[in-house]
Write a structure and sequence with these properties.
Blueprint: H1 2-18, H2 29-37, H3 40-74
Protein name: CcmD family protein
Keywords: Membrane, Signal, Transmembrane, Transmembrane helix
Organism: Dyadobacter subterraneus
Length: about 80
């Protein structure tokens, strides 16, 4: 679990540099339309749900794997 926490912390700290905003001249018309309609939050919510699902699934697999490893080491 410690390794996962360090990995997530590292990704969080490094992601700040990846979130550079484009200049106004390079604006994407589709994103502007979604922002104007207020639907950009739907996109953000769906992406957040997908990433949360992936993270939860990874943690479940990690816990199951640890349980199996403990069982194999005992026998």
């Amino acid at each position: 679990m410690k390794r996962v926490s360090i990995f997530i912390l590292t990704l969080t700290l490094l992601s700040g540099k990846l979130l550079a905003q484009a200049a106004e001249t390079d604006a994407v018309p589709m994103a502007d339309k979604l922002r104007a309609d207020g639907k950009i939050w739907v996109v953000v919510a769906v992406v957040a749900i997908v990433f949360a699902g992936i993270a939860i699934n990874m943690l479940r697999i990690d816990f199951k794997l640890r349980k199996i490893e403990k069982e194999l080491n005992i026998k």
